[in-house]
Automatic annotation (TrEMBL):
Pfam families: Metallophos
Entries under SUPFAM superfamilies matching the protein: Metallo-dependent phosphatases (SSF56300)
GO molecular function, one term: phosphatase activity
Protein name per Swiss-Prot or TrEMBL: Calcineurin-like phosphoesterase domain-containing protein
Recorded superkingdom: Bacteria
Residues in Calcineurin-like phosphoesterase domain copies: 4-81
Coiled coil regions in record: none
One GO biological process term: RNA decapping
Gene3D superfamilies: 3.60.21.10
Length: 199
């Protein structure tokens, strides 16, 4: 029997673990929720966004994408030129995943380097995923108090030991993927509470 939900933690530019986690999730859950922070730190942010756009089409209606702080900072750099703040968050790895030069050899500015579908994807990220039984936010600090009977799933802060922290009514599933040398990407299933790691 399939779980109702599979939640995938912070990705941070790590393509291979992401592909494996989504592949697993699509076979074990009706709905897939990614908790954000797709970009920065890891070297494959552009490829990660390409893959997520493909997954959005292939798994339409089953997959949901939340906005992480790093994703919003990337959008801020694109929209408002806030590159300094973005670079302080590990944005150099994201920028280096996009081409610096156009076909004619001219240097491209940031907006020219990032394809419009990537910008549109970042603009359409959701702030939360909420049902009667589950809530998911990128950062637990942004979530309202859980209602009785609700289970919360959160990312944002890497857990020491790179294993998810699973309590009675919530789970913290940022396990350092793309951030820590031994980081892993966690896929947590609800209501079974099963989880796997990739990477």
């Amino acid at each position: 029997m399939m779980d109702r939900y599979a939640f995938i933690g912070d990705v941070h530019g790590a393509l291979r673990p992401l592909i494996a986690a989504v592949e697993h999730a699509q076979h074990v859950a009706e709905s897939i929720v990614l908790l954000g922070d797709y970009v920065n730190r890891g070297e494959q942010s552009r490829e990660v966004l390409d893959f997520l756009l493909q997954a959005e089409t292939r798994l339409a209606g089953r997959i949901h994408f939340l906005a992480g702080h790093h994703d919003l900072a990337f959008l801020g750099a694109l929209d408002h030129g806030r590159e300094d703040a973005f670079l302080r968050m590990g944005g150099a790895a994201t920028l280096s995943s996009y081409p610096y030069f156009g076909a004619n050899g001219t240097r491209l500015d940031l907006r020219e380097r990032v394809p419009p579908p990537h910008v549109k994807f970042l603009r359409c990220l959701e702030s939360s995923f909420v049902t009667d039984e589950c809530v998911a936010f990128h950062d637990q600090a942004d979530a309202p108090p859980l209602k009785i009977g609700q289970f919360g799933v959160f990312g944002h802060r890497p857990i020491l030991g790179n294993r998810p922290y699973i309590a009675k009514d919530f789970a913290l599933i940022d396990t350092g993927c793309g951030t820590l040398p031994d980081g892993r990407l966690t896929c947590f299933q609800w209501p079974s509470r099963d989880w796997i790691q990739t990477g």
